[in-house]
Design brief:
0% helix; four-stranded antiparallel sheet
Amino acid sequence: QVELAESGGGLVQAGGSLRLSCAFIGNTFAEYTMAWYRQAPGRQRDLVAIITSGGSTNYLDSVKGRFTISRDHLQNTVYLQMNSLKPEDTAVYYCNAQSMKIATMTYWGQGTQVTVSS
């Protein structure tokens, strides 16, 4: 069983920075691809950034160069560093863990609100 505990959201002015953290509570962190998604009101949930166990990353085009995803295998934590934030980045951000062994095994955090004021 896996649980994901997110933290780090909040209110920031445009141009500011925030760092989201997602603690992976379980003993198989290395067996999961980790990702951050976001969902704004009335919109679908979009993949923002993804990182494999080996450290390969990919990003939503609109956040490339501004956001950085990373993972710490000692702390079992994944991070999303968000710089140069824009009002359109406002959303609830969700941490996701996807098993690399079992396709149907996926877990979600409870979500953390990020609000960027103009």
